Amino acid sequence: MLWRTFCIIHVMSWHPQYRSSKFRHVYGKAASKEKCYDCVPITHSVHDNHFCAVNPHFIAVVTECAGGGAFLVIPIHQTGKLDPHYPRICGHKGNVLDIKWNPFNDYVIASCSEDATVKIWDIPKHLLTKNITTPKKELLGHARRVGLIEWHPTANNILFSSGHDYKIMIWNLDTREDVLSNPVKILDVHKDVVLSMSFNTDGSLLATACRDKKIRLIDPRARTVLQEASYKSHRANKVLFLGNMKKLLSTGTSRWNNRQIALWDQNDLSVPLLEEDLDGSSGLLFPFYDSDTNMLYIVGKGDGNIRYYEISPEKPYLSYLMEYRSHLPQKGIGMMPKRGLEVSACEIFRFYKLIPTKSLIEPVSMIVPRRSESYQEDIYPLTTGSQPAMTAQEWLNGVNKGPLLVSLRPGSGPVNSLPQLPESEPRVKSPDLNKSQRGRMPPEEMEKKSEIKDSRNQLKEEERLPKNEHMRLSNGFDVFECPPPKTENELLQMFYRQQEEIRRLRVLLNHRDVKIKQLELELRNLNMDTGRQHGFPWLVVVTFP
User: 10 Å Cβ neighbour count for 151?
Assistant: First the structure.
């Protein structure tokens, strides 16, 4: 009895080291040569930034330019060699240090520069034919060069900028003025240059890493510091909010100059929850967090590898998964938003590596290996969409709202603009042709018949849709209203869109064939069960009290 009690206690207190995870086998897959962007003149600046910004329509990259700063905006499908005379956005008088796409408008991008200005640009929907030199808006407020910009995650047209004058300025772009010189708020709480900025999920808090080796948690509207970390064993360069986990992650160096990551409790920044040394290299570490999968990616500047981990709210907090390795070192990195991923290939993240030694931009996809080609609901929960949750004035008045979520399932909501199928008709009761036979039929078979009838109704509704309604819109692209291509680039872009449309239609046809076979099989089984019931005498079971 004593031995039994000991065994039970031992089993209850033992926790296995092996941790089950659906993302344990995630692997990185680099794009083929023809799907990369070649001959791109990537900047030689030594500033510690991403130098690349991506959305589902364009990829923007900071480039070299004589007599000022410039960056390129390339359509996402225009891969291959870039024309050396390709138009640029070149309105800055100094080197461009940071670029960020508006999260709620894929045709608006912000840039900041050594000329102490921030500029907002409108990108035309058609291909660029000449350089853009006139911005939509110009923000003049910083006394020294501006090194960082960040859009607010839920409020429309709110932009944060950080300069070497140690100030963070908040701009409201919901004005008709082309030149703004008065920000709505100024955060003057730092004693040195701000190296990194990050928002929590609803944008009510701002975390910063400063060159004075401190991490600060700030209420941007009240302009007050809520928490401050001055932990001497960790010198932070980049800081990142980990979604709704109420935790911060920072990358930097340890006391012995090893590259290090640290995990912090949002409500107590006195001591980190976790510290982990990575290696002795000198390149900066860029952290990226995917709140949908709770995965953390660590990208080293000057490295060719990408480490990835899984974050959990309880100990051990950080679980190492794997590492993508490449012999090509990256100078900068871009990240595709979730709504631009290829869900049919189980792609959960996509990087764009800037490789200046080869003038190359190489996409790297993070893929969950799955055999099924159908939509995987468990790895694609509702994610942040492209619509703002509130206006700029609402946020300035103190309102907090989380992001508007959408589904990545093809054909659902604003993520995919394909025409929606009408909802299936309400379940109709079967006619009482043979009441006695239906009374003897088990409830499970009645349910089967009803499901088959619903599926038939849905197929009929799909057939009733006009054919041109299925082909009119494809990935937000109107086939009939688009003029014929006039240049080689337009023809190439049209070709890629047609290939994507063909692939999508093949997937839909395969799904429909599988559904038809399933319905035929269910109908056959149902007929066989009904035949058996007619061939054998009914058994009447009588129970006595």
Answer: 22
C-alpha–C-alpha distance, residues 495 and 418, integer Å: 19
> How far is residue 199 from each of residues 219, 220, 302, measured CA to CA in Å?
10, 10, 26
* pLDDT of 445 over the 70 cut: no
Q: Are 187 and 194 in contact (CB under 8 A)?
A: no
Quote the tokens at residue 245: 């986990």
Confidence of residue 373 (pLDDT cuts 50, 70, 90): confident
- Cβ-proximal residues to 532 (8 Å cutoff; 6+ apart), any chain: none
Nearest-angstrom CA–CA distance, 257 and 328: 24
Do residues 61 and 36 make contact, with C-beta atoms less than 8 angstroms apart?
Answer: no
* Residue-wise DSSP of 502-528: HHHHHHHHHHHHHHHHHHHHHHHHHHH
In this prediction, residue 483 carries a pLDDT of 58
pTM attached to this predicted model? 0.73
Written in H, E and C, the secondary structure of 217-234 is EEECCCCEEEEEECCCCE
- The C-alpha atoms of residue 345 and residue 500 are separated, in whole angstroms, by 13
Return the percentage of the chain with pLDDT > 70, whole number. Answer: 79
Give backbone dihedrals phi and psi of 262, rounded to 5 degrees, phi first.
Answer: -135, 140
Q: Kindly state the DSSP code that residue 390 receives in the 8-state scheme.
A: B
Structure confidence by residue, pLDDT tens digits, 489-513: 667 777 777 877 887 888 888 888 8
Kindly tell me if the per-residue pLDDT of 69 is higher than 60.
yes
- 373 within 8 A of 507, measured Cβ to Cβ: yes
